[in-house]
């Protein structure tokens, strides 16, 4: 009898459960399939365009469409409201175009009915391309996206962070690296006939692990014929990939030298800022999207302790991968009642490849067991490694010239020792957060671009010098995608 009643009661529980509402999301996305890094200019391929377009469509069906499985509170379902979106991508054709392709899937053309506007004289004008919608990338969304939104653009990758560059370069002197370099000489030479059109024997080693893997990987997707491809057994390709994973993860993250993961630290700050803006604006700016490089994924994975969940998180993520932070609540949400911070949580999800084909799966962050964690906990954990303003960045990076000249008087981080940065890994300093001006922002962007161009230029003219330390990997440390 009692058992029956319990059974009856438990059958009611699902009905009593609150409906979960998504208040906003932050999506960090890798570009789609592209041509090889070895032969610039690198460009997004049609396959890559499809991958990001379909990912955009996947997210549309999850968060935006009137029938979406978890429609975001207050989101405009068909006609884009640009104030609701904050889309960022570095000035890089592969990433910019990936963002554009993704947005086409997120907000597709609306057709003649919705896509038509009426003029004063009564004439109707339909938007080109069947009601195609224009969505700016890198525009600051709206006032509600927070006082800090204008500084988000300088927070891209390592952007010339001195201590991070030193730390990454130190990898090439580490015992781990030297052992691997020695151990794999024979293996790399065994694939020389496959890659000898691009890499000389002297360049054909673990130092170029990523570029070699990239050449083989891209060629296997695009080249109808590859010299000596009989050497490319699944085991060999897997080993080339695993060695590249090892090389790139170590460049992106080292537990003893957190500054190496600056790309993940700045990303963490951007995520918190955007989600916080969603909350403070009561879901008027609900979606943050950023396209970025795989090293930002790896740096973030390391900082968020995801390798403890699975060693998979030490591997380079596939093209068009995405990680998504959902701001969710079980409290009632209406126009007039918005949940308090205590009722809001964050869910982390990751899709290894275009989300149209690879499941978007929830994983626990920060060594916790739950995949949904309270907002306040999330903020504390993220702020333990987030770097979200100019002064903090300058101090942790040990930069004291250029844009950092004015901020160093109060900082202690001018030492070039990468380890000195660990002592002051604070969160976002509120005092300075609001005062970073557009001039500063612009100066940093220009500085970072100049650096990238300089390294890219160096790379173009010195292809034969793969073997020395000013080689393309150091460029890819700064601008890898
Ligand atoms: C939502 O689903 C209904 C029923 O399946 C369908 O009639 C309607 O067209 C869909 N609306 C959108 C916007 O997809
Ligand atoms: C209405 O105004 C538009 C834009 O100025 C013009 O192109 C169009 O010819 C006008 N239509 C009429 C009927 O005057
Ligand atoms: C930081 O310092 C390094 C080394 O001095 C320099 O190359 C880089 O351009 C600086 N970055 C910025 C943003 O000033
Ligand atoms: C990680 O950092 C530690 C401390 O600086 C260093 O001893 C070690 O070699 C580094 N490992 C790698 C793979 O860079
Ligand atoms: C690797 O290191 C061992 C021991 O130091 C040395 O004998 C060997 O020649 C090295 N192999 C290569 C390929 O450099
Ligand atoms: C690459 O190696 C193959 C096989 O050893 C050889 O036939 C070919 O000429 C080499 N190509 C170049 C560009 O050196
Ligand atoms: C694949 O084709 C490209 C373009 O023709 C060429 O540059 C590249 O070397 C080829 N890949 C291999 C492994 O031969
Ligand atoms: C969120 O934004 C508000 C208003 O800008 C600010 O006061 C607050 O400190 C921010 N909270 C977090 C967790 O960043
Ligand atoms: C790790 O990757 C393997 C192979 O793709 C997969 O089978 C496994 O489920 C993954 N583990 C996690 C925790 O995602
Ligand atoms: C993603 O897939 C690649 C294989 O293509 C694998 O090496 C990597 O570990 C995977 N990452 C995750 C987080 O599952
Ligand atoms: C909402 O309730 C369901 C069922 O108890 C739970 O699985 C989910 O994690 C809750 N979501 C939040 C944001 O607390
Ligand atoms: C609540 O939002 C809906 C949809 O945006 C709108 O139609 C309605 O007028 C709003 N109600 C209030 C009280 O603001």
From TrEMBL:
Leader sequence segment: 1-18
Region (Disordered): 407-427
Domain of life: Eukaryota
Transmembrane segments: 431-456
An example molecular function term from Gene Ontology annotations: phosphatase activity
UniProt keyword annotations, A-Z: Membrane, Signal, Transmembrane, Transmembrane helix
CDD domains found in the cross-reference section: HP_HAP_like (cd07061)
Pfam families linked: His_Phos_2
Family statement drawn from the similarity comment of this UniProt entry: Belongs to the histidine acid phosphatase family.
Entry protein name: Histidine acid phosphatase-like protein
């Amino acid at each position: 009898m009692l058992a029956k009643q319990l059974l009856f009661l438990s059958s009611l529980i699902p009905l009593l459960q609150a409906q979960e509402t998504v208040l906003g999301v932050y999506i960090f996305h890798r570009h789609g399939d592209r041509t090889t890094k070895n032969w610039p200019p690198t460009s997004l391929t049609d396959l890559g365009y499809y991958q990001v377009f379909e990912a955009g469509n996947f997210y549309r069906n999850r968060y935006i469409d009137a029938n979406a499985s978890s429609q975001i509170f207050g989101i405009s379902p068909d006609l884009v409201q640009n104030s609701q979106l904050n889309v960022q991508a570095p000035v890089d054709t592969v990433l910019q175009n990936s963002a554009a392709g993704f947005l086409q899937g997120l907000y597709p053309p609306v057709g003649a009915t919705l896509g038509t506007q009426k003029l004063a004289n009564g004439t109707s004008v339909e938007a080109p391309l069947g009601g195609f919608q224009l969505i700016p990338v890198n525009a600051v969304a709206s006032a509600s996206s927070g006082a800090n939104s204008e500084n988000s653009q300088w927070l891209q990758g390592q952007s010339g962070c001195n201590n991070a560059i030193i730390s990454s370069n130190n990898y090439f002197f580490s015992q781990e690296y030297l052992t691997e370099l020695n151990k794999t000489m024979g293996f790399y030479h065994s694939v020389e006939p496959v890659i000898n059109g691009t890499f000389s024997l002297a360049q054909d080693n673990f130092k170029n692990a990523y570029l070699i893997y990239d050449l083989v990987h891209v060629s296997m997707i695009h080249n109808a014929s590859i010299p000596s491809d009989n050497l490319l057994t699944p085991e060999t390709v897997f080993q080339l990939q695993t060695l590249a994973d090892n090389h790139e993860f170590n460049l992106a993250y080292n537990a003893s030298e957190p500054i190496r993961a600056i790309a993940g630290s700045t990303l963490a700050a951007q995520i918190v800022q955007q989600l916080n803006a969603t909350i403070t604006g009561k879901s008027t700016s609900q979606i943050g999207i950023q396209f970025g490089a795989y090293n930002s994924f790896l740096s973030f994975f390391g900082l968020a302790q995801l390798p403890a969940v699975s060693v998979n998180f030490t591997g380079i993520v596939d093209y068009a991968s995405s990680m998504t932070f959902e701001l969710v609540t079980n409290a009632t949400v209406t126009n007039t009642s918005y949940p308090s911070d205590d009722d809001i949580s964050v869910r982390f999800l990751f899709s290894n490849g275009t989300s149209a084909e690879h499941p978007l799966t929830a994983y626990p962050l920060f060594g916790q067991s739950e995949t949904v964690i309270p907002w306040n906990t999330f903020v504390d954990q993220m702020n333990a490694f987030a770097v979200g303003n100019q002064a903090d960045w300058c101090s942790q990076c040990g930069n004291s010239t250029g844009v950092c000249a004015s901020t160093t008087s109060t900082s202690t981080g001018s030492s070039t020792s990468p380890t000195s940065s660990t002592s002051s890994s604070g969160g976002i300093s509120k005092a300075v957060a609001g005062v970073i001006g557009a001039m500063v922002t612009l100066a940093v962007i220009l500085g970072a671009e100049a650096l990238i161009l300089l390294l890219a230029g160096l790379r173009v003219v010195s292809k034969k010098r793969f073997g020395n330390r000013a080689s393309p990997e150091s460029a890819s440390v700064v601008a890898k995608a």
